[in-house]
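Thread amino acids onto this structure.
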């Protein structure tokens, strides 16, 4: 039943064995996962992946094979009622219809309206313009259209206009094992170099050894020195999930190149904008976070700070307390970014979107202003410009 899925996992270079595949089938036979895609995801990963380094490869293969399937309906069709197999109707609107839909006027108004409709609504709705439902023009629900609103029960974003997302979202860590296609990135990163010899003396200094031996009447006198390495200290913050999903590959190439180039490098993840906490493991991001204050206290101002993200989100996420799409932030994102730029001497933002998409207003314009216009495209030329600025 799942042979093609197993082969897809193997094609993704996940070293899953036939024995592990048979374990998965046995687990399914015993109903350890039934009619739930999330349960099947975790069960299959548990059975087929034995090293967390391969989680990202597994996730990509899983997504490619099961793309568009919310439940295990197609695999267990005989056991599930037919109406479970029908997707929700998605209403298609013309540009003229979209232009006639007005937003509710701001984040606070959206929150109050949502609370009111949660109290009043008693049944399921579809295709409407007010209640929480699907396929309509209401600000609340899934698979419809509204200039801004709350996305509820929809797997992926489509318009990029949601102010809040009412669901648990799974992000992936970046793979630092990417080796192809990073040579040009490494060359660009080398513009940010400051060599030093620190640590244990474990390398032979040939010139000093020859000179010292000559001074010592020919008796061998070995001279050792510490390894020469790039002494620049770097902090990198990666935006993950949502609109950044199409840019995972280039972010992984940057991540891999930076890990090889900088001896002193720390990395963190965030979603859309920086707030009171960040994280280093996307699987446990809800439980294991690092306070942004701790970062400001731990790392000295001479660290070079690089943010990587498209900076495209609702402006409230930058300007308002409570504007985060996933949680209630007590202070605005702009407040936290200001603290970062006040503490560290050099901060840049790398954007994977072409410069022609940036415009001047909205969240992207606000972000550019917060980093003093030191936003650069995530291209070789953009990287070189960013590294020149950081090295000054």
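Threaded sequence (392 positions):
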């Amino acid at each position: 039943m799942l042979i093609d899925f197993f082969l897809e996992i193997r094609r993704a270079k996940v070293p899953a064995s036939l024995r592990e595949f048979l374990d998965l089938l046995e687990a399914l036979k015993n109903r350890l996962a039934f009619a739930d895609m999330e349960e099947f995801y975790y069960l299959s990963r548990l059975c087929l992946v034995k090293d967390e380094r391969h989680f990202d490869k597994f996730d990509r293969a899983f997504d490619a094979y099961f793309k568009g399937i919310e439940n295990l309906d197609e695999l267990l069709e005989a056991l599930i009622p037919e109406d479970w197999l029908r997707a929700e109707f998605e209403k298609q609107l013309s540009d003229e219809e979209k232009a006639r839909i007005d937003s509710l006027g701001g984040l606070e108004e959206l929150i109050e309206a949502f609370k009111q409709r949660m109290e009043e609504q008693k049944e399921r709705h579809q295709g409407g313009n007010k209640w929480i439902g699907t396929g309509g023009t209401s600000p609340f629900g899934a698979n419809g259209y509204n200039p801004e609103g709350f996305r509820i029960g929809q797997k992926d974003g489509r318009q990029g206009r949601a102010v809040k997302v009412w669901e648990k979202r799974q992000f992936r860590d970046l793979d630092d094992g990417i080796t192809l296609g990073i040579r040009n990135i490494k060359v660009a990163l080398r513009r940010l170099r400051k060599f030093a010899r620190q640590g244990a003396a474990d390398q032979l200094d040939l010139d000093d050894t020859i000179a010292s031996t000559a001074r010592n009447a020919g008796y061998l006198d070995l001279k050792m020195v510490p390894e020469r390495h790039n002494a620049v200290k770097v902090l990198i913050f990666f935006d993950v999930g949502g609109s950044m999903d199409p840019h995972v590959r280039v972010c992984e190439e940057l991540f891999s190149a930076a890990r090889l180039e900088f001896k002193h490098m720390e990395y963190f993840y965030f979603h859309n904008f920086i707030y009171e906490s960040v994280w280093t493991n996307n699987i446990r991001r809800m439980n294991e976070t690092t306070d942004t204050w701790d970062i400001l206290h731990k790392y000295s101002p001479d660290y070079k700070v690089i943010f990587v993200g498209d900076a495209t989100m609702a402006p409230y996420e930058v300007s308002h307390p409570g504007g985060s799409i996933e949680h209630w932030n007590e202070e605005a994102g702009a407040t936290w970014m200001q603290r970062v730029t006040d503490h560290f001497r050099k901060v840049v933002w790398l954007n994977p979107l072409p410069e022609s998409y940036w415009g001047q207003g909205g969240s992207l314009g606000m972000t550019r202003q917060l980093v003093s216009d030191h936003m650069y495209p995530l291209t070789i030329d953009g990287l070189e410009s960013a590294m020149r600025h950081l090295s000054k």
